[in-house]
Write a sequence for this structure.
């Protein structure tokens, strides 16, 4: 198994980042505008993009510290993988440690997704620092896969 890993620092509080990760409004503000569902623990959130989408089961949340999802619908490579956001305070920054874990093999689609996760994490940073992110369909397009 292989994982996508990213680290980003934001000047917003862990509570503000947590809100952006655990509310439909927050998620729609940085990942994709076409978001709906139940973002609470045990709920399923549906994320739709021009080429398709993903359904995430919210495994657990720990206020201002951690959010974990499991992919329950979407591309075959994503099914059963988990997405984890860990938050910590460090020298005046909120550090977001991101993992998309459990990929069966490092295929080209994984490389694409790693780049897109970086784009969306920068959108999350922009949302919590300025109030306006760049979610799909206003995100940076990197290929025909979007």
């Amino acid at each position: 198994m292989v994982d996508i890993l990213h680290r980003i620092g934001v000047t917003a509080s862990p509570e503000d980042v947590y809100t952006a990760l655990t509310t439909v409004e927050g998620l729609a503000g940085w990942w994709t505008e076409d978001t709906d569902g139940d973002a609470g623990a045990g709920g399923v959130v549906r994320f739709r993009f021009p080429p398709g989408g993903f359904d995430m089961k919210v495994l657990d949340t720990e206020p201002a510290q951690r959010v974990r999802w499991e992919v329950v619908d979407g591309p075959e490579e994503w099914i059963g993988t988990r997405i984890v956001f860990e938050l910590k305070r460090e020298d005046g920054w909120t550090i977001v440690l991101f993992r998309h874990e459990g990929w069966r093999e490092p295929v080209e689609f994984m490389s694409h997704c790693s780049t897109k996760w970086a784009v969306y994490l920068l959108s999350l940073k922009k949302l919590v620092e300025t109030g306006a992110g760049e979610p799909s369909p206003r995100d940076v397009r990197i290929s025909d896969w979007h």
